[in-house]
Amino acid sequence: MKKLTLTTLTAMSLALPAVAEDTIKIGLGVPMTGDLAIYSEYLGARCMADMINAEGGAGGKKIEVLVQDSAGDTQAAISLAQKFLDEGVVMLGTTPFSDTMIPVAQIAQPYGVSIFQPQSTQVEMHAGIVDNFFTGVSPDPFTATAAANHALSEGVKNVVLLTSDEGGSWSARTPLWFGQVIEEGGGKVLAKMNFSFGTSDWSPQIADMKALGEEIDAVYISSIMPDIGVLVRQLRSAGIDAWVVGSDGFDDPSLDAVAADDPAILEKVFFATLAPSHNESAVVKFMADCKELGHDVPGLFPATGADTVKAVAWAVETSGSSDPAVIAETIRTAESIPVLTVDSISFKDTKTYAQRTIPVIGYKDGKRVLISNEIPENTPKDWN
Question: Which region is the signal sequence (predicted)?
Answer without folding.
Answer: 1-20
